[in-house]
Specification:
Helix content is about 40%, strand content about 15%. It is α/β, with parallel strands linked by helices. The chain has a single domain (about 5-225), classed as Uracil-DNA glycosylase-like domain (Uracil-DNA Glycosylase, subunit E), CATH 3.40.470. The protein has a 6-stranded mixed beta sheet. The radius of gyration is 27 Å and the shape is elongated. Bound molecules: uracil.
Length: about 230
């Protein structure tokens, strides 16, 4: 006797089957996440800054001053903005303040080439004036992205402009320098130290003793974190 085959739905009903296997195979292979290289992200950011419009700083500057040093360094240092020499050479901290910075770093056994350096504003302010609050906040957007790309273990903010970019103008650098702060950038906490700017120290050498204190705190932390730098 020929058996009449029932259709699938009838069979499910007869056997009380409520769940069926999907006939699509499960794909157990993970899709490789697209990891964009740091250097590529930095180029993109630089291009974004280069494309800035209606910026007084850009109009009078000769060059974009973006970065110097090791992009994989655990230490990122942020200054104010390029001076005349930096504007001419397109590199941060290459003038007089830069020479002092190199000596300050060497005093705690840090080679400038092994850290990553940038500024709050990437174009030289006319006559080296301090960047305006609105310029600071405009460039702080780029700076946040910059920090997030470098992803440092330790961030050093040099001078009141770098301090203001993240902590506002209400606090005084004389009161806020020399202690660790927690800065959240792109949902990540970064250990941050505010300290005097080398250009300020050139004008006020008697303040160097405070800088020295801050540098020693930074060295201690590097040793504590076992950062081989
Ligand atoms: N001062 C800064 O803040 N940055 C430089 O690059 C040079 C001097």
């Amino acid at each position: 006797m020929a058996i009449k085959l029932k259709n699938q739905n009838e069979i499910f009903e007869i056997f009380g089957i409520n769940e069926v296997y999907a006939n699509k195979p499960i794909n157990r292979m993970k899709i490789k996440p697209k990891v964009e290289l740091k250097s590529k992200k930095l180029i993109n950011l630089k291009n974004k800054i280069e494309a800035i419009q209606d910026c007084e700083l850009k109009k009078s500057a000769n060059n974009l001053v973006f970065n110097d040093g090791d992009e994989n360094s655990p230490i990122m240092l942020v200054g104010e903005g390029p001076g005349q020499k930096e504007d001419a050479l397109g590199k941060p901290f290459v003038g007089e303040a830069g020479s002092l910075l190199n000596k300050m770093l060497a005093a705690i056994n840090l080679d400038r080439k092994k850290i990553y350096i940038t500024n709050v504003v990437n174009y030289r302010p006319p006559n080296n004036r301090k960047p305006e609050p609105q310029e600071i906040s405009r460039y702080a957007e780029f700076l946040r992205e910059h920090i997030s790309i470098i992803d440092p273990k330790i961030l050093i903010l040099m001078g009141s402009t770098a301090m203001e970019a993240f902590f506002g103008a209400k606090i005084k650098i004389t009161k806020s320098r020399g202690e660790w702060r927690e800065l959240i950038v792109n949902k990540k906490m970064i250990k941050t130290m505010i300290t005097f700017h080398p250009a300020y120290l050139l004008r006020q050498p008697d303040q160097k003793k405070f800088s020295w204190k801050d540098l020693k705190i930074i060295r201690k932390e590097l040793d504590k974190l076992n950062l081989n730098i």
